[in-house]
Amino acid sequence: MTPTYYLVLAAALFTIGAVGVLVRRNAIVVFMCVELMLNAANLTLVTFSRINGTLDGQIMSFFVMVVAAAEVVIGLAIIMSIYRSRRSASVDDANLLKY
Amino acid sequence: MDTVFAPATGALSWMWLLIALPLAGATVLLLLGRRADRWGHLLGTATVGAAFVLGLVFFLQLSGLPDDARSATLDLFTFVESGSLNISAGLLFDPLSAVFVLLITGVGFLIHVYAIGYMSHDEGRRRFFAFFNLFVAAMLLLVLGDNYVMMFVGWEGVGVASYLLISFWFNRPSAATAGKKAFLANRVGDAGFLIAIFLMFASFGSTDFQTVFNGTAANNLASGTVLAIGLFLLLGACGKSGQFPLQTWLPDAMEGPTPVSALIHAATMVTAGVYLIARSHPIFSANETAQLVVVSIGALTLLIGCVIGCAKDDIKRVLAYSTVSQIGYMFLAVGLGGAAYALGIIHLLAHGFFKAGLFLGAGSVMHGMNDQVDIRRFGGLWKYMKSTWFTFLLGYLAIIGLPPLSGFFTKDPIILAAFNREGWQGWVFGGAALLGAGLTAFYMTRLFILTFHGPKRWTDDIEHPHESPAIMTIPLWILAVGSVAAGGLMSTSVVNWLTPVFGHTEHHEEKMSHWTATGLTMALVVLGVVIAFLLFRRGTALAEQPARTHIVRAARQNLYADRFNELVLELPGRLLTRALVWVDNRGVDGVVNGLAAAVGGGSARLRRSQTGFVRSYALSILSGAVVVVAALLVVTFG
């Protein structure tokens, strides 16, 4: 098995996610892009785990998934409360913490 | 001849008590504060009285010893020990110290008694006596120290006490300034004294009188070193004694209470310079140039004092300039060397009596006249204060040198000794001393007549001047008796007494006979008295008259000494200060402030990058991660 396809796919997913985080304003979409980047990283971990024949990478990806699940809970809660107070889910509107 | 001091025996081993007693008095009075207000003056007077009695006991014991063994040293403890520098706190009681101890404690005791009355209305009387005791302790340390460092400790001690007492009424700006001026002028002299001590240590490895004198006598030193030590010692002496060019502080010191002027700025402290030169006589005798400088300074200062004394209208300032000029006589005498050392000391003792009496008399006049000091505002006082008048008269006759009062026996020999110096110097210095005697007679007569005789020129607020209480007049009477009798009694006995210190001197050929000199002096003195009498017997104008001649104008300005100090010393100092302030503000502060401004401005600009947009932060994180990865790739595969 050649890892190239998997790695190229993971890189593409990561790039899409990164660009999405940088260019999109909707908090939900940004959030989904973050998930995309996490899963791209997971894919890479699993690929290398498979190549090396050890389970370390797969265990690591489980950890990532658990953390991502927890993060989703908190992140969505934050987005919800921002939306409630501002009537908007745009990340550009939440810009009070600045100079 | 080697100088060897014998260790103290018997009662003399208790001589530290001389210093300890007044010092204890000062400590108690200062520490107890107001609790000692009611009896503080009595304690202060008692300690000095006890020191006088002790001084007499020690004096008697010393006089019981054979001529060549009349000295006693007492090693108290090691003061400084560092490498080869070893300074012991040692005391020396020899004939020279003995006469000073008796003068300081004796006249000091009388002035303490007088001050009880003089300061009775002053709230700070206890503080005054504490400082007075401190002064006596320091002065005794000065004359009893057996090495130059101990002497310097006492020297600084009297400087501090003098400062505290001149500015005793410290809420008067003029008094506070006068105290500072005295302190600063003294500092100049003290620096000279210190350098002289350093030089001694460098040349002899010690500052003991014994080692230094024997080292000088052994004649191993380059004459330049001896000259330098002598001149720096002289600078110290000039500072303390108000001699040219450091004389300007002494008249201003009259801002202190009158007993201070009498004790410190007439009878004792200002004579410390004379003591220093007399004590260091082996150094000065070893170098003729140093002696010549001492003589010149003495002659110049005695003329300066006389000339300014003629132009002043403040009773205490006239007496102050008279002190400057009389100390000039003493410098002249100790500078002449040989037999004249003893003459200087005798004049110092006699001066201690009559000048203390004159100052206390002036204080008594001020006491009765609402603290008026302007002699144009006195007149006719002899009827109202008989004791003050008569004792002042005796002091006045003593200072102008009328026989048989003390000034005659002590000043005339100095004039004669000055004339008998070789060559042209004899004529110059003798002439100066002679002229000084005539001028002294003039200004003292002016002072006396304007104060006690002639028409009344009092200010309106004085109804009836009163005589001072007995506690003030009794010291006046004792000092007046001293002014009358001291000169005749001391003129030969003290010379013999001091022989072990200064050594025997052979009589060489005299250019002028004793009788010629006395005749000339008497003629000039009488001339001065008569001129002053004719000019001032009808009183004087109340307002200051315009000065018609340059000399009068200059004398009223203290011969421009203050102006000189301001222009030559103060002005450059002030300009330098201003330049330094400018450099500090613009240069040093500029760098510090500039750095702070740069950091502040930079961070104000930098914080603009905190836009609050999440994506810009995300971009920076991403680019950071890219850079890190790129760096890792370069390191791993590059």
TrEMBL record, chain A:
Compartment(s) of residence: Cell membrane; Membrane
Gene Ontology cellular component terms for the protein in this record: NADH dehydrogenase complex; plasma membrane
Cross-referenced Gene3D superfamilies: 1.10.287.3510
EC number: 7.1.1.-
Pfam families with a match to the protein in the record: Oxidored_q2
Keyword check for Membrane: yes
Bilayer topology: Multi-pass membrane protein
Keywords: Cell membrane, Membrane, NAD, Quinone, Translocase, Transmembrane, Transmembrane helix, Transport
Catalytic reactions of this protein: a quinone + NADH + 5 H(+)(in) = a quinol + NAD(+) + 4 H(+)(out)
InterPro entries, A to Z: NADH_UbQ_OxRdtase_chain4L/K (IPR001133), NUOK/Mnh_C1-like (IPR039428)
Domain of life: Bacteria
Any one biological process term the GO annotation gives: ATP synthesis coupled electron transport
GO molecular function, one term: quinone binding
Keyword Oxidoreductase assigned: no
Sequence intervals crossing the membrane: 6-23, 28-48, 60-83
NCBIfam families per UniProt: PRK05715.1-2 (NF004320), PRK05715.1-3 (NF004321)
Function: NDH-1 shuttles electrons from NADH, via FMN and iron-sulfur (Fe-S) centers, to quinones in the respiratory chain. The immediate electron acceptor for the enzyme in this species is believed to be a menaquinone. Couples the redox reaction to proton translocation (for every two electrons transferred, four hydrogen ions are translocated across the cytoplasmic membrane), and thus conserves the redox energy in a proton gradient.
Quaternary state and interactors: NDH-1 is composed of 14 different subunits. Subunits NuoA, H, J, K, L, M, N constitute the membrane sector of the complex.
Family named by the database record: Belongs to the complex I subunit 4L family.
Stated name of the protein: NADH-quinone oxidoreductase subunit K
Species the sequence originates in: Stackebrandtia albiflava
Lineage: Bacteria, Bacillati, Actinomycetota, Actinomycetes, Glycomycetales
Gene transcribed to yield this protein: nuoK
Automatic annotation (TrEMBL), chain B:
Transmembrane segments: 12-32, 39-60, 96-116, 128-145, 151-170, 182-201, 221-239, 260-278, 290-311, 318-339, 345-366, 387-406, 426-449, 470-495, 515-536, 617-637
GO molecular function: NADH dehydrogenase (ubiquinone) activity; NADH dehydrogenase activity
UniProt entry keywords in alphabetical sequence: Membrane, Transmembrane, Transmembrane helix
Subcellular location, record wording: Endomembrane system; Membrane
Domain of life: Bacteria
Gene Ontology biological process terms in this record: ATP synthesis coupled electron transport; electron transport coupled proton transport
Descriptive protein name: NADH-quinone oxidoreductase subunit L
Gene Ontology CC terms, in alphabetical order: endomembrane system; membrane
InterPro entries, sorted: NADHpl_OxRdtase_5_subgr, ND/Mrp_TM, NU5C-like, Proton_antipo_N
Membrane topology, record value: Multi-pass membrane protein
NADH:quinone oxidoreductase/Mrp antiporter transmembrane domain segment(s): 147-431
Keyword Transmembrane helix: yes
Organism, as annotated: Stackebrandtia albiflava
Residue ranges of domain NADH-Ubiquinone oxidoreductase (complex I) chain 5 N-terminal in the record: 80-129
Gene3D superfamilies reported in the protein's UniProt record: 1.20.5.2700
NCBIfam families: NDH_I_L, PRK06590.1
